[in-house]
What we know:
The structure holds two protein chains of two kinds.
Chain A: E1 3-6, E2 11-14, E3 19-21, E4 23-26, E5 32-38, E6 44-50, E7 56-59, E8 62-65, E9 75-77, E10 86-93, E11 102-103, E12 107-112
Parallel strand pairs in A: 2-12
Antiparallel strand pairs in A: 1-4, 3-9, 5-6, 5-10, 7-8, 8-9, 10-11, 10-12
Chain B: E1 4-7, E2 10-13, E3 19-25, E4 32-39, E5 43-52, E6 55-58, E7 65-70, E8 73-78, E9 87-94, E10 102-104, E11 108-112
Parallel strand pairs in B: 2-11
Antiparallel strand pairs in B: 1-3, 3-8, 4-5, 4-9, 5-6, 7-8, 9-10, 9-11
Amino acid sequence: xxxxxxxxxxxxxxxEAFLTxxxxxxxxxxxxxxxxxxxxxxxxxxxxKATKADDKGSNKGFEATYRKETTSFHLEKGSVQVSxxxxxxxxxxxxGGADGxxxxxxxxxxxxx
Amino acid sequence: SxxxxxxxxxxxxxxxxxxxxxxxxxxxxxxNLYWYRQAAGRGLQLLFYSVGIGQISSEVPQNLSxxxxxxxxxxxxxxxxxxxxxGFYLCARRAGGGTDTQYFGPGTRLTVL
Lengths: 113, 113
C-alpha cells in the first residue's frame, strides 16, 4: 500500500536558519505530492504541491522537488521566521479521482527568535 | 470562493452519547468530500469519502458512519461514542478530476469523556 514517512520532531531552529524537513514515500504508479501546514487549532492549509517527477513546488519561500529516483519530496526554506512555527504534513495522492490522501505523521517546527 | 464550513468547532461529549458533525461546502458542484481524523500520535487518517449524494465509501471499520444527504453537505455520525473517538475531525473537498487538490475545512475538536 501507499505510505509516507517524515521526521516527526519537534524540530527547533533559530530565526533565519535553513530548514529541511525530509519526506519519503512509497506508492504504486505516479502519485501527486503535497505539503500542508497546520497552525495551532486550525485546519490544514495547502503549502505547495508537485504532480510529476522533477516538478518543483514553491510558495512563501518554501520549496520541494518531486524526486522519483529517491522517492522523496523534502521541504526546504532558506531563512525561517517565527511565524513559520507550525506542524507540516507531507502527503501523497495516488490519483484515480476519488482517493483520499495518505499523510505522514507531521513534523512540529518551532522557530525561536 | 470555495469555502468549507464545519460545525461545531469544538464539542465535549460523554461516552455512549450520539454524535453528529456537519460539513458544508460552497462554490462548487458535485465535489468529492472526505472525512479525516487527526488523533494524538497517529497523524491523519481517512475515515470516509463520497463522490455524490448517497454514495459513501468507508476506509476503516469503526464506530462512526457518514452520510451525504445533499450535494454540498457531508455528515459524520455515531450512535454511541467511545473514548477512542476523541480527536480533531477534518472535512475536505476535491472539485473533481484525477489530479485536483484537496482543500480542508477548519476542523472540529471532539473530546469524549
